[in-house]
Write a structure and sequence with these properties.
- It is built from three helices and two strands.
- The protein is mostly helical.
- It has a two-stranded antiparallel ribbon.
- It has a domain of 53 residues.
Length: 77
């Protein structure tokens, strides 16, 4: 990927720019594996609370799904 900007909202008290994921993706091919590595790099330090423990995994899956959707040619969908 030549350029990428990611931000997450709705999974923390305020939106944040996903700098770790951006760094992980830079210069790498747009593959499922690189998307997963980027999501993990961004969310490795994340911890949920009792009432929202699902959010880190939800954010991981959302990052991967969004990147997949953005990099899949329209004719392949």
């Amino acid at each position: 990927m030549a350029r990428i900007r990611l931000a997450l909202g709705g999974v923390a008290p305020r939106p944040w720019r996903a700098h770790a994921a951006e760094r992980e993706l830079l210069g790498r091919p747009a593959t499922e594996g690189s998307f997963r590595a980027a999501a993990e790099a961004e969310l490795a330090p994340a911890t949920g609370r009792e009432h929202n423990a699902f959010k880190p995994e939800l954010a991981r899956r959302t990052i991967v799904a969004t990147l997949r959707r953005l990099t899949t040619p329209a004719s392949a969908s």
